């Protein structure tokens, strides 16, 4: 199996890492870089728990080849808090609106919400629902997640 | 009205920050030095004899440290009926039967090793329909299993669920109207977003530690201690440590083969062994909610008073036995006690098949039974020519009632719930249009004050305080996302006169935390809450005793508010908690501020006739929906959804709403979209593309109504609310569909195909 050195920006910092060519981005993040905030819910790109941002857009890292992040910008949940450890407004809203129960879908859900608001700062409720429709949650019924996102976009 | 500082507040879940930043450690994230990875080989046949297993090639693969089969493990038996073993020898009975297991240095190597194991099977015919399996002469799943008075071999389990109250036959004769129907419910599964897994390890003295995601730490510890004895390690200790749990919903109420396999591999290799399920395994190798065939009859008088309820039920148990086989004990609750019904008969049979074996799932049988009861209530109301709203009001339970199962109802907000739903939906105006839009409602009863399933329904709490006023609470309760640690912290803070942020709740380690029977039966807020409250009261008494000396005030004049002990008589006499604590610790002959409390509610085991006051108090609720049915496609769209619940008191309204939203969403899935498709025992849709969980685009904006009846036995008046949110969902939707287009769907899920077929049938008539 071939090895290759990947260079990309991860949570604002440049990284260079030697990796096997068959790895998924999720394996690279979790197993090599020990960024365990990105979760594997299905391994088939169907549940969104492994969502990360690649150049600002959401990708399912569990089916995304690690090789393809070379030269690109990756943001994981660990990259959302600032240097002092302050929570991102979306993270704060998720906490305050009860959008977190078991929390397994939460990192992916927060990143999907971030991608949505970065592109569309004032989404309608329909657009919010559409924006997180690729991220499954079994605990919350999504309602408080939707409320949290609407709160950040100044719509509650 | 009492004024509370912490109770009744929308306080965020204590671990939410950890979770929202990705710092929370789930079982999948756990790494221990030297850890090996375990994988399981499952049977490719639902029913077959194992003729031989050859593991020699797998053992030779570099990186493989152990290979186990049913032929080289000690005789561990597990499950509710002790009819299961970690690895099967001689015979497999379902497609999730574990045949061999490998531990290797890497998960990929372990997977590769599975491919090298050669198993020779002699295929046997399978039986997948419980009605077939019940027939005389049917082939036997477990040849050694006997039942009935004659002790004859049978597939019917020796669990004769049978509840009789009053005289159903006589009541039937005297009824003005009688409805008789067959309802069917199917397999659905928990779909925890975090898949199953564990890490098992032994120390040098052969004491076992298992990192686990169980809902029953103390009972799991006991199961593992039994397993150690079976392994020849009698007297060795088992410790269960929980990581964050990625969802429970009843799936983790039992111990499972994969856990015993990890233990056996760890013992064999002397290394920590981790097993993590893939999503596919999670779909086919965990235990779902079982299907049931429900034959139900109910009758009423001319003026719409229920006269009897008569139910026969057949449940597909699958190949082995977990708590799924005991769901009839909870089904008895709505059958006997949802609405006032004087004469009741319920007989249920659980039957072995070659399907996957069933487990309880949120609601524990209640959603299945309530679907039949409350759907048929509308049928009966129509026969009697009474508005379903009035019909329900006429038969609604009331405080002080003793039900035919001998449940003693204290507080009961059912009428308020029915009324609130009707008001919100504008019931009188919108019902009966039959124009493609319609409304429906259904109600629920559930245990709200614990449930004496075991001999004990208890939970322990230990509280200690440090020099500065931090309150450490060690509880037996389990948090799997529902927020019990936060609710417990609120209760302790309220009782002790401190703030929630002063309280640290530890609930993860059987070596540290007191005993508890587990997170089931919506019991945690009530039982663990009362336990925590009791411990906090004792700690408070200790603090006041120390302060009484230093302040020169009698104990009865002292109280604690906002971290300060003060005299109710003389507000000048006061002392911050930290100072009192340091006085206790540093004074010669000092004392430690620490207390334990065990709360075991005053409820009853069901007796031989399955009667008894199972819970200290009961939770009620009513859901109402407005739907639109597309007559061209059969699609059902939920336009409005109102959920009213008698919760006793909302300790944390935000977390409570989360339970109702999440529950109702699972309920809508149960009603409309979710179905684990089994064909000859094989799960045909083991993925989220084909198993239709609701997404953010599918959920309605639930309108919740909280009815506070302030139960005298609940902690600050609270009842349990974990399960009720999904109980009445399916019948409420089925009733609304009937109101919209006049078709009655009696089997779940109510897919567009079924609605369309029913509409076509109706046209023909």
Fold and architecture overview:
- Chain A has 156 residues and is of the alpha+beta class.
- Chain A is 30% helix and 17% strand.
- By secondary structure, chain B is α+β, with helices and mostly antiparallel strands.
- Helix content of chain B is 28%, strand content 24%.
- Chain B contains 19 helices and 30 strands.
- In chain B, a hairpin with a 2-residue loop joins strand 22 and strand 23.
- The longest helix of chain B is centred in the last third of the chain and has 28 residues.
- The termini of chain B are far apart.
- The mean pLDDT of chain B is 97.
- The chains are: A alpha+beta (156), B alpha+beta (765).
- At the A-B interface, helix 2, helix 3, helix 4 and helix 5 of A face helix 1 and helix 17 of B.
Attribute tags:
heterodimer; A: 156 residues; alpha+beta; Ubiquitin-like (UB roll); DNA polymerase, domain 1; five-stranded mixed beta sheet; 5 helices; B: 765 residues; Aldehyde Oxidoreductase, domain 3; Aldehyde Oxidoreductase, domain 4; 3 domains; seven-stranded mixed beta sheet; 19 helices
Number of domains of chain A: 2
* Fourth-tier CATH superfamily name of the largest domain in chain A: Beta-grasp domain
Count the DSSP helices of chain B: 19
Structural class computed from helices and strand pairing of chain A: alpha+beta
Specify which chain pair forms the largest interface: A-B, 53 and 56 residues
The Rg value of chain A, from CA coordinates, equals: 15 Å
CATH topology descriptor of the largest domain in chain B: Aldehyde Oxidoreductase, domain 4
Task: Tell me the distance between the termini of chain A.
Answer: 52 Å
**Strand order, largest beta sheet of chain A:** 2-1-5-3-4
User: Helical residue percent of chain B?
Assistant: 25-40%
What's the CATH H-level homologous superfamily of the largest domain in chain B?
Aldehyde oxidase/xanthine dehydrogenase, molybdopterin binding domain
CATH class label of the largest domain in chain A: Alpha Beta
Largest sheet of chain B: 7 strands, mixed
- Terminal residue distance of chain B: 59 Å
